[in-house]
Structures are given as C-alpha cells and as structure tokens.
Specification:
The chain is α/β, with parallel strands linked by helices. The strands form 4 sheets. A 7-stranded mixed beta sheet has the order 10-13-14-9-8-15-16, with helices on both faces. It has a 6-stranded mixed beta sheet with strand order 5-4-3-6-7-17, sandwiched between helices.
Length: about 475
Amino acid sequence: MEAMKETVDQSLREMRDTFASGRTRSVKWRKTQLEAIIEMVKDNEDKMCDVLFQDLGKHSTEAFRDELGFVMRSATTALNCLDKWVVPRKSNLPLLFYPATGKVISEPYGTVLVLSSWNFPISLSLDPMIGAISAGNTVLLKASELSPNASALLAKLIPSYLDTKAIKVIEGGPEVATILLRHQWDKIFFTGSPRIGKIIMAAAAEHLTPVTLELGGKCPTIVDHHSVSKDMKSVVKRISGGKWGSCSGQACISVDYVLVEQSFASSLIEMLQPVIKSFFGENPKKSGCLARIVTKKHFQRLSRLLSDPRVQASIVYGGSMDEEKLYVEPTILLNPPLDSEIMNEEIFGPILPIITLRDIQESIGFINSKPKPLAIYAFTKNEKLKTKILSETSSGSVTFNDVMIQYMCDALPFGGVGDSGMGRYHGKYSFECFSHEKAIMEGSLAMDLEPRYPPWNNFKLTFIRLAFREAYFKLVLLMLGLKK
C-alpha cells in the first residue's frame, strides 16, 4: 500500500499543479477532452462491449443503449452547449443598488474525485467525468473493482486519449478508496449504496468537501389499472423492461416492486409471464439477453433474500438460481411479508415483488412508510392521483406511464433525495454539479448613500426601512423632506 499512497500523492500534486496553471479553464482544452472521449468510445466500442459482457454478461445492444451510446450523447451535448454554459449570467439588480451591476460566473471547483459503480462501469465512470471536464476541473477516477475488466480497460484507454496531467485513473478496492478519501479534494462524486455513501460523506466532512451522492433505494411502481386498462400491454412491457431489461435489475433506478389493487394482481402476473418469455425465451439462462449477477457475494445476498421460507411461499413465477453461472431467473413474488428483508432493502436483482392494496390510493401511504426513493413510477391517467403523488410523496424523480427513461433525458436533472442521494447531474446539470457559481458585483464610486453609515438617527432608520421594502416613491419623498 505504500506504493499506492505515493502514486496517489504524486497524482494529486500533478493534477493540482495542472489546475493552478489555468490550462483546464480554457474552453478549447475542455472541448478537446470531450472530443477525445467521443473518439475513445467510438474507437473501442467492441472492446468496451467485450468487457461489459465479461464483467456482467451484458448483450452488446444493451451495453450500447445503457452505456456507450449514453456516454457519446452526453459528451456531444456538452461539446455543443459548452459555449453557452460558460457565459456569465447577468443579474438584474434591484433599483436600490443602482448604478451597480451584477453577474454570476461558473468557475471549476479544482481537483475532483469520481468514485464510480460496477453495474454501469463505463457510463457511471465517464458521464461524471464529462461534467467535471466541461466545468474545467482536473479529475481522478477510481472505477469499481467489482467490474475488473471494465476498470482495467478504462485505466488503459483514458491515458491514451485524454490529458494525463489533468485526468487520471487509479484502480483498486476499498483500501485504495480509503487512501484517496484521506486526501483533501475540491469535490467528490460518488455512485453506489447508501451505506458506502455515509462513509464517503463522513470522510468529506473532515475537509468540508462538497459531495454529490448518487445512491439508490426501493423504487416503487404504481399500477392504476382502472385508468390504463386499455394500455396494459404497454404497461406490462415497460415494467418488465424496467425490471429485467437493464443489468438484470442491478440498477438504482430499476423497478423494485409493484403496487396494484388486489383485484388485478392475478391478471398482472398472467400478463407478465409471456412478456418475460418474449424477452428471454423459455430458458433465460441461455438467451444471451439477461445480464448475470456481478459477483458470488451479490448472488448469495439475493439467495439469502429468497431463502426466507415466507418469501419462498410468495414465489409465483421463476425462482431458480445457479451460483456457478451467477444466474437468477426472472422471479415474481406475490405479497411477500412486509417485514421481510426483501421488502426492506434495495433488491438490486431480477426479483419483482407485487404488493396488493385494497385501493390504489393507499400507494401513497405505502411509499411514505419507506425511505425516499430515487424514482417513483406510476402508470395512471388519473390526474387527481398524479397530483397526489407529486404533492404527498418525496423522491428523486417521478415518471408517469414509463420507467427509467428519465435517466436518459439530459434535459432533466438526475439525482436523489434523503437516503437516495444528494445533488444532481446530466446535461447542463452536470456542468453545474462540478461548478461553483460565483457572484460578481461591481459598484460605482460616483455616488454614496449616507444612511449606510453611522452615526445612526431616526432619518437613517426610516430610510433603511423603506429601502428594504423597495418603497422608492416614499424614499424620494423622504429625501425631499416631504415624509417623516
């Protein structure tokens, strides 16, 4: 570990020196790095798909949709919009401050640390980097050791395409993360579990370092079958895609469980089964379209969740497992006990509990009984229910009549609240995430207001009262001696 400590020290010194030189503040430099990221992904698409298959069993189409294509779109958006993002924003100051002027400029934090996750190891590494580079920072990336092939590929490719004095990659596990967190950074961006998020935040607090935490949680899906009965085919397909079609449910925004009225539960289960077969065939293990569980440890966690006899009794579809292949069959549960572990921690796997309610309106109370989720999904055309969801629940985002697409839309901010995280990114919000918005005010020496200064008297107090109320006409009267 002594060698790693020296590597980290040296990397940090070089990045700080590079930032201090002002090189990364140049818009030209930022654009060059963004172009290099696009080129890197294009040049190495096959290699990236290969490592995603090796680490997670992802099909190349899924890999491009969720990772490579997403990164190229993100970098292209930043490249096309950067000139607009960096322009200082003029502020309209109240008349009271005339003739002063004001504006807000976005300046880079400095040297930032990005700690990425294993489930989307390419996109969750490069997308935050795109934001950090766009804002003019130097960046150190530690990719997840749980996706070792992707981590090794990024460690090899990034120095070949990007500025090695400003952008660095370090590989390693928790012990390396611990070394990194002992240092002072200007910003830390972490994607992972709430448990590790607390450790990151505690370490950042030692240096009062700002953090963005992209965590997770149990994302519920409400199915109001009364209002979407004619569209249930699409509803079921979207739920299935949101549960099993993206890293086999190992995604922070995947559907965690479904809330539905008791009278419709059996119909929903019957509709889900043929959709699963249409996605993955009669034998999902051999379909090539279902990602595998990332490690034996994660497989054993899912196995433990299902091993509860009460949970086993709730299995209505699937349930088979193969530890050697790290395979868990798409599984549906009907009303597992609410006090079971599977209903009180993020599942992060291809297991879908369906919870029945007497009335779909009860979904609000059910969601509020749990920590704030990263996303709430609701299939409904009932405007009153939509309003109730928006006004009576709290979550990172709400998506009506679809799932997971909010993540792909860089016109919207992505981030959590409470246990599901803090901060936001994507598109311009990524630029803002890695920027300090500095207020600039330029006053004039041409005139002065005596009521600003001692000695104090009743006239000055009246002036200040009127000034705070922006009662300009009365201020004029006071100055003319026509108001006491």
